[in-house]
Specification:
The complex is a heterodimer of chains A (122) and B (551).
Chain A (H helix, E strand, L loop, with lengths): L11 H7 L1 E8 L10 E4 L6 E7 L5 E8 L5 H14 L5 E7 L4 H15 L5
Parallel strand pairs in A: 4-5
Antiparallel strand pairs in A: 1-4, 2-3, 3-5
Helix pairs in contact in A: 2-3
Chain B lengths: L11 H15 L5 E2 L4 H8 L5 E4 L8 H8 L9 E7 L3 H8 L3 E8 L4 H9 L4 E5 L2 H8 L7 E9 L5 E2 L7 H9 L4 E9 L15 E4 L19 H18 L3 E4 L3 H16 L9 E3 L7 H5 L5 E3 L8 H5 L17 H11 L2 E4 L3 E2 L5 E2 L12 H4 L11 H11 L9 E5 L16 H9 L15 E4 L2 E4 L6 H9 L6 H4 L3 H9 L3 E2 L21 H7 L14
Parallel strand pairs in B: 1-9, 2-3, 2-6, 3-4, 4-5, 6-8, 8-9, 10-11, 10-13, 11-12, 13-16, 16-17
Antiparallel strand pairs in B: 6-7, 14-15, 17-18, 18-19
Helix pairs in contact in B: 3-4, 8-9
The chains are: A alpha+beta (122), B alpha/beta (551).
Chain lengths: 122, 551
C-alpha cells in the first residue's frame, strides 16, 4: 500500500498543533487476522485513514484518533461504540487520522478496514 | 352612480400600450433597437409603478436587459414592481438599491440570498411573496400580469420572430401573459439571422429586439462531476434503488440536482441493471439534460426526457438522441419550464432530492439564517397533487401503504435523500428548522418550508430508509425520522426500543434489511467516474464547459 502525499491547507506545524487527540478502549471478542496490518482510506478533506495492526490484548481494542475537527469527542464515542457492537475487533490497535470525515464515512471506512484485516474480501 | 357620467372605458391597457409605443416611435426608436438606445427605450416604454417581468432563472438570463434597466434614471423610472423567476445577478438587486424598483414577487434567489435578506431588513425591498415556478407563472395570468417583459432568445429575424434554441425555458409563459394582455415584449438576442432554424416565439407577439453585446449568460447548474461522488452517496443510492425504485416500480420521475441523485443516475446501468431493473424503473423523466444520465440513456434504460431548460455542452448529444429528448424540426431541443413543471407535478410518480434541514415532522427546508433563497420548482415536484386522477402501480402502492387497501387515491412518492451530517459536521436533522428564525427576522407570514412533512413519503440516509407512509401517528413519524438520523443529536435522542419496533414493521430499514452490504458501496459501481468518462459514453458528443475539463 502506498502512502499518498498529503497537501494540508496550512503549514504542517500549525496542522499538528490544531489536531485533537482522542483515545478509546473497548472490550470486544478477538478477531482472527488474515494479514499483518492494513491501511484504508486517505487523509483528505472530509475523509480519513484507518490503520489496523495487531495488539497483545486479545479481548480488547484500543482506538487512537488524531482529528482536525475539534470538539466532537461525544460523537466519536457514539460512532465507535456502535461499530464495536457490530464487529469483533479484539486484539487490534486501530489508528485513525481524520480530516473532518462525517460519521457515515468513518463507519464505512472502519468496516472496510476490518474486512480487509480479516481477509473477508469476497 | 349616474349613467350619464363618462362612458366606461374597456381598453385602458391597450391605450397604455399604444401611448408607450407612440412615445418610442416619436423618438425614432424602431423595433430593431440598437444597443446604445436600449436604456432610452426602457425609460420610454416603461412607466413608474409598472409591473415588469425580467426573464431569468437558474439557467438562462436576460442579463443585458437587466443591466440596462439597472442603468436607467431613477428620476424617470421608479416604484417598479418586478416579477421574475430568479434573482441571480447583482443587477437584479441593483434595481432596488438604485431606487428603480420597490416591490418583488419571485421564486428563487440562490446566489443573491444574503444580499436580498439585507435589503428586506433595511426595508429597501418589499416582497410580495415567494412562489414556486408554476405558481408564479399562474399569477402572470391572473393578478401579476406584466406591463412590460424583458426576455432572452438566441436569435431574431428581421420580422421579429424569435429562436430560443434549446434554452426555451420560461420564455413562452412570460411572453404569452404579456403579449395577450396588451403588454410590451422586449427581447435581447445573441444574433440576427435572415432565416431562423425554427420559430419559438412568433413576431407579432414581440415589440422590440436588441442584439446584446455578449451572448446571454447560461449557468451549467445541472452538471455534476462523477469524480466528486462519495461512497456514502453510492450507499444511499443503492438503498434508494433497491428499497424504493424497485419496490414501487417507479417509471416516471424527477431528480434533484445534487450528487446524491447523480449517484443514482450513474448506478442505473450497473447496479440497477444487475438487479434486473432495466426497463422496469426510470423510463420516463421530467428532468434537465443531466450529463450524469448519459450512461443510462446509452445503456437503453431511458425512453423519454422532457426538460425545463437545457444544459451547457449537452446540445449536440441531445440533437443526436431525438427519440429520447423533445426536439424541433431543426434538430435542437425545445425545453419549456412551465410544461415540464406540470409533468413533474401531475405526471411523475416520484420526486427525489436532497435538502439542508429536516425536522421531526419531516418538513424540509433549504433556508438558513440570513439568506432568503426561495424554492424554484422543488415544492411542485416534491408535493402530492390532489388534482391527480390517473393511476399507476407506484402511485397506488404508496396510497395503499398510507391509507390501507380501500384507499380512494394514490400518493406521489416524495423522497428526501441526505447524509445525516453536511460539511463542517452540520446536522441535517434538527428539532426546529432555521426557517422559523428566518420567518421572525423577515417578518414573513410563513416559514419558508420547501417540502411539507405530510408530503414526504421516505427519507434515505446512510443509516437506512424511513418509510413515513407506514407511520400511524406523529410520534411514530418522529421516531422513524430519529431512527435514520444517525449520530446527530436528533438521532441519538431516539427511543431505541420504538425504533426497533418500527424496524420490525419495515417502517425503518437498514442496509442489511435490504440485503445491501455497505462495504460494497465503492466507486467501482459508478458507470462513469469522471466527466471524461461521460464524454466517452456520449460518443464524444457531450462537450463539457471548460471548468469541468481537467484533461
Amino acid at each position: 500500500m502506498v502512502r499518498r502525499t498529503l497537501r494540508p491547507p496550512f503549514t504542517i506545524p500549525q496542522l499538528v498543533i490544531s489536531m485533537e487527540k482522542l483515545e478509546y478502549h473497548f472490550s470486544t471478542p478477538s478477531i482472527k487476522p488474515a494479514v499483518g496490518a492494513v491501511i484504508c482510506g486517505v487523509v483528505g478533506s472530509g475523509n480519513l485513514e484507518v490503520l489496523v495492526r495487531p495488539a497483545d490484548t486479545a479481548a480488547s481494542c484500543t482506538i487512537e484518533i488524531k482529528t482536525s475537527a475539534r470538539g466532537f469527542g461525544n460523537i466519536w464515542q457514539a460512532v465507535l461504540a456502535e461499530f464495536i457492537s457490530q464487529h469483533a475487533v479484539g486484539g487490534t490497535h486501530i489508528a485513525i487520522n481524520d480530516m473532518g470525515a462525517t460519521p457515515a464515512v468513518v463507519t464505512l471506512r472502519l468496516g472496510q478496514a476490518i474486512r480487509q484485516y480479516a481477509g473477508d474480501l469476497r | 352612480m349616474n349613467q350619464t357620467d363618462t362612458p366606461k372605458v374597456w381598453d385602458t391597457r391597450k391605450r397604455g400600450r399604444q401611448r408607450r409605443l407612440e412615445r418610442a416611435a416619436n423618438l425614432g426608436l424602431s423595433p430593431q433597437i440598437r444597443q446604445e438606445h436600449i436604456t432610452q427605450l426602457l425609460q420610454t416604454v416603461i412607466e413608474p409603478g409598472d409591473r415588469v417581468c425580467l426573464e431569468g432563472n437558474n439557467q438562462k438570463q436576460a442579463d443585458f436587459l437587466a443591466d440596462s434597466l439597472a442603468a436607467s434614471d431613477p428620476q424617470q423610472l421608479h416604484h417598479l414592481h418586478m416579477v421574475q423567476s430568479v434573482l441571480a445577478l447583482p443587477s437584479h438587486l441593483d434595481l432596488f438599491e438604485n431606487g428603480i424598483a420597490s416591490r418583488l414577487d419571485f421564486s428563487f434567489s440562490g446566489p443573491q440570498g444574503a444580499r436580498l435578506a439585507r435589503l428586506v431588513q433595511d426595508k429597501q425591498i418589499e416582497i410580495g411573496a415567494i412562489h414556486t415556478y408554476l405558481e408564479l407563472f399562474g399569477r402572470y395570468f391572473t393578478d401579476l400580469t406584466p406591463n412590460v417583459c424583458l426576455i432572452a432568445a438566441q436569435a431574431a429575424d428581421a420580422a421579429g420572430n424569435l429562436y430560443t434554441g434549446p434554452n426555451t425555458e420560461d420564455t413562452p409563459a412570460i411572453v404569452e401573459a404579456t403579449a395577450f394582455h396588451s403588454g410590451i415584449v422586449i427581447a435581447q438576442v445573441n444574433e440576427r439571422m435572415d432565416t431562423l432554424p425554427r420559430v419559438d416565439i412568433p413576431a407579432d407577439w414581440v415589440d422590440f429586439t436588441v442584439v446584446a453585446p455578449r451572448p446571454n449568460y447560461i449557468e451549467p447548474l445541472f452538471t455534476r462531476d462523477p469524480a466528486q461522488i462519495t461512497e456514502v452517496q453510492i450507499l444511499m443510492a443503492m438503498m434508494a434503488i433497491k428499497g424504493i425504485y424497485a419496490e414501487y416500480g417507479v417509471q416516471r420521475l424527477n431528480h434533484g440536482i445534487g450528487f446524491d441523485t447523480a449517484a443514482i443516475e450513474l448506478l442505473l446501468p450497473t447496479y440497477a441493471t444487475e438487479l434486473g431493473l432495466k426497463g422496469k424503473i426510470c423510463t420516463h423523466w421530467a428532468l434537465n439534460p443531466h450529463p450524469t444520465l448519459i450512461p443510462a440513456i446509452e445503456s437503453g434504460c431511458v425512453q423519454s426526457i422532457h426538460s425545463f431548460g437545457s444544459e451547457v455542452g449537452m446540445e449536440n448529444y441531445i440533437a443526436a438522441r431525438p427519440d429520447v429528448f423533445f426536439t424541433g424540426r431543426d434538430g435542437s431541443m425545445r425545453s419549456n419550464r412551465a410544461f415540464s413543471q406540470t409533468a413533474g407535478l401531475y405526471a411523475c410518480d416520484m420526486f427525489i432530492g436532497s435538502t439542508l434541514q429536516i425536522d421531526l415532522a419531516g418538513n424540509s427546508s433549504t433556508a438558513t439564517t440570513g439568506r432568503i433563497t426561495g424554492f424554484g420548482g422543488a415544492p411542485n415536484m416534491g408535493s402530492d397533487p390532489h388534482g391527480r386522477r390517473h393511476a399507476s402501480a407506484a402511485w397506488l402502492k404508496a396510497g395503499r401503504e398510507a391509507a390501507g387497501p380501500d384507499a380512494i387515491r394514490g400518493r406521489k412518492l416524495v423522497v428526501q435523500i441526505v447524509e445525516t451530517f453536511r460539511e463542517h459536521m452540520t446536522p441535517v436533522f434538527v428539532e426546529e428548522l432555521d426557517a422559523w428564525q428566518l420567518k421572525a427576522s423577515m417578518d414573513a407570514e410563513l416559514p419558508p418550508i420547501m417540502i411539507y412533512g405530510d408530503d414526504v413519503t421516505h427519507i434515505v440516509t446512510e443509516e437506512g430508509i424511513a418509510n413515513l407512509l407506514l407511520c400511524r401517528s406523529a410520534e411514530e413519524r418522529a421516531q422513524a425520522i430519529r431512527g435514520v438520523a444517525g449520530f446527530t443529536p436528533v438521532g441519538m435522542a431516539r427511543d431505541r426500543c420504538m425504533v426497533e419496533n418500527l424496524r420490525d414493521r419495515g417502517v425503518v430499514r437498514r442496509p442489511e434489511d435490504l440485503g445491501i452490504d455497505p462495504r460494497l458501496a465503492t466507486r467501482d459501481l459508478l458507470a462513469a467516474r469522471s466527466v471524461k468518462d461521460l464524454v466517452r459514453w456520449s460518443g464524444e458528443l457531450y462537450a463539457p464547459p471548460s471548468r469541468f475539463r481537467n484533461w
